[in-house]
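Table S2 (text version). Query chain:
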Amino acid sequence: MDDFRYRDGQLHCEEVPLSHVAERFGTPLYVYSRRTLVEHFDRLEQAFAAVRPAVCFSVKSCSNLHILRLLKERGAWFDVVSGGELRRALEAGAAPGRIVFAGVGKTDEEIAAALQAGIAWFNVESEQELENLIRLAAESGRRARAALRVNPDVDPRTHVYTTTGTKETKFGVDIERVRAAFERCGPASAGGVSLCGVHLHIGSPVNEPGPYVRMIGKALDLVGELRGCGHRIEAINIGGGFGAHYEGSEAPAAAEYAARIVPLLADSGLAVLMEPGRSIAANAGVLLTRTTYVKRSGERRFLIVDAALTEMLRPALYGAYHFAWPVRPAGGVVPPHRGPDLNLPGTELVDVVGPVCESADFLAKDRRLPAVQRGDLIAIFSAGAYGFSMSSQYNSRPRAAEVLIEGASATLIRRRETYDDLVGAERL
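Corresponding structure-token output:
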């Protein structure tokens, strides 16, 4: 699952004790395992090897340049959803022909930059966006390939905020309107835009292959219909959303997804793209935080730590579960798993909360942890995806540092922000 293990009474990342990393770089601190990132990417690529997919890492999930470079070296493409993410991918050395641009609200400036760069695909999210892309491509004299994002009306049975493939969401074009959208371009390219692919993304995390089977079945029927009308369809992008292990082992292995998906696509005659993020990065990172105070209020016991919703928004935004445990647990109590139902001897019921002035500022609620004292380190697990990338400077808190572990070495890959960084853009 990952390379975070308790040895000799404390948590290690690969060969490095995390207490040493916190002493060296401070807290709050994101720590990533290089080995885990590489293994997760490689397993996914190998599982789907029969359809030779373009594995487009979702930059929004974990956008540090050093991690993007690492994945580029493994052969990753990149899925971007903004002009800033396009810049990050290019800055990381990605070939423009290995970048796919998604997102419902691409501005003219963002589209123009992507056309200028010569990216591989635009994932078009509406009929009006398609018309705008055709106009901008004609004005620039550039050519582009586009895939229409299809809303297949498949419920992935995940959180309502991360469900994106059912009707009445802002994402994609309802499947009933897709044929009309293709007719606007005609069988040939229009104004330099070749609409020759379909794109689908139903949500995240999706911890079962069934919704993908239903989604792809609908998409292939649609491809057959479009081809019958004379449209050239070259590619299918099946999106991302594969799960990660937050509570233990709830997410299927890459091979389990592939066993159901690959047979559907193997003889389709389509190039296959996919956009994983969480399944590669989530379990490859932890957030280290130090206990500032231990407090009782009524019957509740609070561990007030130096990380907050500014470092890990998912619990406040989604009610998401992240396993939390001391880096050096009192009594040497090592958790046998990372589920929410741990009730080990020598533990007590606590809430792990941050210093931000919001009642929603919590990292873990109603957890049984070994005794924690002021100054003790706590690790928030499965923080590699949508951790730092969703962080903020709310309450004027400088953003945390990031460290990449490889074997016995720890490398700073993003310095901690300073108060000067907070106000620098306002010094006009």
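Notes on Table S2: Residues 210-228 form the longest helix (19 residues). Confidence is low (pLDDT under 50) at residues 159-166.
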